[in-house]
Amino acid sequence: MRSKFLLAGGALSVVLTAAAVLGAVQEWWWLVVAAGMVLLSVTLIIAMDADRRARALRPYIRGEVSKNGKSALPPALEAPPVSEVDVVGTVRVLQAQFTGRLDRMQASLDQAVAQLRDVADREPSAAQSPPTPESDQA
């Protein structure tokens, strides 16, 4: 039954898409708009039906689980209280990670500056002044 609906929906979308393309080729804009509106409307209706079915399934599943007398979820455990030592330890770990990232970034910047200085030292004329059109013609 579902496969027939799926095939019918697929066929309908192919027909509507073909009608929209044919309308665009023939410059029948009313046909393009009509086919697009029907295609989008059908898509919206299908999405709303799927959402309704999913919402209706939740109470059904809860009822089936409660019939068996077993809970599907374990009982919720209470979180242990957070002490000041836990907070301080977490802050220190985050601080160490952040400091390590800053150190790596500083090392990368120092390396990039050293490379730029090396290039500038090897080619002093190119690094000091950009080429001008007059110097290219000479």
Helix content: over 70%
**Shape summary:** flat
Low-confidence stretches: none
Tally of alpha and pi helices: 5
CA radius of gyration: 34 Å
Q: Largest sheet at a glance? A: none
- Bin the strand percentage: under 5%
Q: What count of structural domains?
A: 2
Query: What's the mean pLDDT score?
Result: 83
Intertermini distance = 83 Å
Please write the string of helix (H) and strand (E) elements.
HHHHH
How many beta-strand segments? 0
Class by alpha and beta content: mainly alpha
Short description:
With 138 residues, the protein is an all-alpha fold.
Please give the structural blueprint:
Layout: H1 2-26, H2 29-68, H3 84-122, H4 124-128, H5 133-137
Helix pairs in contact: 1-2
Overall description:
With 138 residues, the protein is mainly α. It folds into two domains: 2-68; 88-123. It contains five helices and no strands. Helix 1 (2-26) runs antiparallel to helix 2.
Q: What brief labels describe this structure?
A:
2 domains; mainly alpha; 138 residues
